[in-house]
Amino acid sequence: MADIITLYDIPSTNPSKAWSPNLWKARFALNIKGxxxxxxxxxxxxxxxxxxxIGAAKTNSISAAYTLPxxxxxxxxxVVSDSIEIARYLDKTYPDTTPLFPRGSQALQAAFxxxxxSTVVQATYLLVIPPSCAKLNHASxxxxxxxxxxxxxxxxxxxxxxxxxxxxxWKALSAGHQAIASWLAQNEQGPFVMxxxxxxxxxxxxxxxxxxxxxxxxxxxxxxxxxxxxDGRWAAYMEEFKRFEQVVE
Length: 249
Prior knowledge:
Layout: E1 5-9, H1 21-33, E2 37-41, H2 47-54, E3 70-73, E4 78-81, H3 83-93, H4 106-135, H5 141-152, H6 164-184, H7 200-216, H8 221-226, H9 229-241
Parallel strand pairs: 1-2
Antiparallel strand pairs: 1-3, 3-4
Helix pairs in contact: 1-3, 1-7, 4-5, 4-6, 4-7
GO molecular function: glutathione transferase activity; maleylacetoacetate isomerase activity
Protein name: GST N-terminal domain-containing protein
Domain GST N-terminal: 10-98
């Protein structure tokens, strides 16, 4: 156990505890590469003290100077912050495992992250942050609420109220995924961003779908609607990720 990687994650009341898309990107990276690790759960108010204690770098987030995910790899005396930097570190340090950034794809992967952010992530926030807040433990909920309300300049209850405004948000989210589906449709074969080869870009897409599924619920009208988008493309896509969804304690 001494040399096993530690993934620091934020728990929720969900049975698996895992929920955050940024944390899922790091977890997918570890699972896709088949690296042994353990999860240590950290409530929001404890993140900064932990990061300072273990020497984790600041991530310059708009909501906090220190954020998760962070990994500690004792085999190489390394502490790495930020999901994409974690993925890059794992590729460099464990080159004999499945590559998250296949050779020659670094620039395209970076461009995809930017495109995904503007096409999907911004449309996701107001819809998914309120139910995320409701899933947090009592130790984290007030911290999460204050930070997000300060970021967006409104009360949590104003983010996505039922009615026309929410309907428009949902349409924007669907349209964003339609755009991504059109990119993937250009591939000659294979379900992934790089066709047959899974990569960090796919972990990014799947992480945001898991976020939605977790906070809305797998039996919710919202998630069932997502599974119909783009003629069921994303339902099939998430089937590909079932083998990487394990949450290792």
